Amino acid sequence: MGEKKVKYLIIGAGISGLTFANYIKDDYLILEKEAEAGGYCRTIKKGDFIWDYAGHFFHFKTDEFKNIFLDNVDKNDVIYQEKCTKILYKNALIDYPFQTNIHELEKQEFIDCLYDLFNKEEKENYDNFLDMLYGKFGKSIVEKFLKPYNEKLYACDLRTLDKDAMGRFFPYANIKQIINNMKKNEDISYNNTFLYPKNGAGSFINILYDKLDKKKILLKTTIQSIDIKNKAVKTQNGDEYTFEYLINTAPLNHFLNLFNEEKFTNLEQELSYNKVLVFNLGFNKKSKLVKEHWIYIPDKDCNYYRIGFYDNILNSDKLSMYIEIGYDKKANINVEEQLKLTLENLQKQNIIDKEMILEEHVAIIMDPAYVHINGETDKKVTKLKTELNEHGIYTIGRYGAWTYCSMEDCMIEAKKLSEKLSE
Ligand SMILES: Cc1cc2nc3c(=O)[nH]c(=O)nc-3n(C[C@H](O)[C@H](O)[C@H](O)COP(=O)(O)OP(=O)(O)OC[C@H]3O[C@@H](n4cnc5c(N)ncnc54)[C@H](O)[C@@H]3O)c2cc1C
């Protein structure tokens, strides 16, 4: 097929690509490798169960983006929840975050945490994420929860992460807040309430998709290479497109390999991140846990770091779970073995019992899942972005920009870029 000219060529129909297209309202074309739009915000329906790619909950900061969805759905299809999140610590459930709920631990553990919290050595500047944790919370809180949990999640040495690697998503707390919380429970995390569509996160994303001209979204179209000099891309099926602006939302590691240039592939090698194996599990009846929305598991003997309960969020009558297991980017994942281990651990933890039947399940590998934020690499990524901008190429979204952000953050960034480019 011949070459086609497009003003705004968008790679990826996830929430970032769809939002950009919704705001640019000009000559755009989205190329998406999958058979459906949505990226990581897609929803899977199997039997009686509705699942996302791991829990995808909306914690809106702005009315503008919240209303894009709420104005377009039946009000009865939206659930608002005050979150009920726990930590499974030594066979007991304590409230999350650990650092503000140490008073729920057994007496000696509580004393150790409190003692170390008072005697910690705070610094002006921290060298890395782990250093910051020790400095702000003291040895016991770090070693009982923050270190093992985050090592399971990020699947890396926490000293390789920036002190602010989790940004606003990390529940900081000072001694005053910790002590006050012992008397009056005040959740200080960014997401103490959330909103969730009954038909899964994908039903919200479909609203963005439905507003677009379907002729301008090419599904099952994978970009194979990018030619910066000629401002052109080639797809796997041999089509060529030239662009004035290229908006990438595919993961940066993947994107860098499309240029076929050594300096880009070298940077790709340096990017550090984890991948997450997600199991969505549907059982024939409910678990004994009927309130909890999600639970954090710091115990290194257990394969998963977090589990969630769709049935408790949706008030449905069969256990419907997501399970998250973190891996290094290079790890080989044995899905069958992990499923077996997961079911064994759920039984050991009394979350399921022997009589419960697994009716449906799916496994998804999110690769990448969490970007490892590191100052040195960050500088190189910023430099690269500036260089690409000079060629009309922009890379946005959680994975395109190589950052840690929410779905709404992706929308905010995509809208800003569309405004900047149409000025
Ligand atoms: C475990 C986990 C839990 C999360 N939970 C939440 C949550 O509760 N709330 C929240 O707000 N956020 C959550 N997130 C973050 C959220 O998933 C992301 O912020 C958001 O989905 C990113 O959207 P995106 O459009 O930038 O990228 P993506 O969704 O990754 O979209 C990129 C698109 O590009 C396509 N693509 C890739 N390569 C090519 C190619 N060569 N050619 C064509 N197309 C290509 C992909 O198929 C994909 O559709 C979570 C993330 C993880 C990993």
Descriptive notes:
It contains 14 helices and 18 strands. 34% of the residues lie in helices and 23% in strands. The protein starts with a strand and ends with a helix. The chain is of the alpha/beta class and 423 residues long. Helix 1 runs parallel beside helix 14 and helix 4 packs antiparallel against helix 5. The protein is globular, with a radius of gyration of 22 Å. Among the domains are: 174 residues, FAD/NAD(P)-binding domain (3-Layer(bba) Sandwich), CATH 3.50.50; 92 residues, Orthogonal Bundle (protoporphyrinogen ix oxidase, domain 3). The model has no long low-confidence stretch (mean pLDDT 95). The strands form 4 sheets. Strands 1, 2, 9, 10, 11, 12 and 18 form a 7-stranded mixed β-sheet that branches. Strands 7-6-14-15-16-13-17 form a 7-stranded mixed β-sheet. Strands 3-4 form a two-stranded antiparallel ribbon. It binds flavin-adenine dinucleotide (FAD). The site of flavin-adenine dinucleotide has 35 residues, from helix 1, helix 13 and helix 14.
